[in-house]
Every structure is written in C-alpha cells, then in structure tokens.
Write a structure and sequence with these properties.
By secondary structure, the chain is α+β, with helices and mostly antiparallel strands. It has two domains: 7-57, no CATH class; 59-129, no CATH class. The protein is built from six helices and six strands. Strand 4 (48-51) and strand 5 (54-57) form a beta hairpin. Helix 2 runs antiparallel to helix 6 (114-129). The longest helix is centred in the C-terminal third of the chain and has 16 residues, at 114-129. This is Reverse transcriptase. It comes from Phytophthora megakarya. InterPro entries: DNA/RNA_pol_sf, Retrovirus_Pol_polyprotein, Rev_trsase/Diguanyl_cyclase.
Length: 151
Amino acid sequence: MTRVWKTRISNYPLLPFLEHHSHDLTERMPVSLPKSEFRKRVIPYLSHEIGAEGIRATPKIVQGIQKLPFPSTLKGGQSFLGSLNYYHKFIEDYAVEAASLILTDDQVRAGRGLSRAKESFETLKRKIVSIPLLRHPDQTKPFVIIPHANQ
C-alpha cells in the first residue's frame, strides 16, 4: 500500500486511479464489494457531493429549501436559518444576510425591518440555489484567509 494516495471518508477509501486499486488488490487489501463503488465521478456524503473538482451541496436538499415560504413567526425564521446553517460555507456573506432575519418580538409586532427581512430571505434562497462549488485547495499557491469581522 505504499505510494497509494487515498482519502478516508468514514471507512470508505476513495482511490482515484484504477491501477492503484489493482495494486491494492495484489497487496491483499480487503475490499467489501457491497460497500464499494467503482468508477464514480461523484460520491454523496452527509448531504454533500464530493468529486475531483470539489464539494457541493446536494441539489435535492437545496431545492427543498428553495420551496420554503417566508416564515410568518419568529420561530419559523429561526427554523429557516437553522436549515441553512449547515450550508453556510456555500453562501457568500451568509452572516450579513442572516442578521436581518433575526428580528425581536417587538420589531415583528411593530412591523419594523420586515421588508428587509423578506429581501434577505429571498437573497439567501437565491444564493443557496446557485450552489457554488467549494474547490479543493491548490497546495502550490499561498493560502489567503478572509474572516468575517466588524470594523
């Protein structure tokens, strides 16, 4: 098993090349056929699709979020944000848009900020549907970290 590149997700090794797989078989690496998938371009894992290009959110779940109506209660708004929280890394400026959806009871009763909340709700739904791809990092280039911070 030397010089074989592999990534472990749970107990499933992903081998990028068939010749590496045949090498592992000659080295008597055990393979469970019912648990194995071969020549797959994309593998589903925890509501994500992982492939050679990168990681993306599962389209089926994203479409379910798209069909949600504007929440009529404070609890409904919190539930919507909770459903998006798992995918926040796919949404640019998630914290900025989500902040306007967090209204207090007094603001809801007075009707203040409701138009901004509806606008943010639609923006978040639009951004989650566009499903960006998180690419694997290029190890040859320097890493740049851009944190979300207040000024």
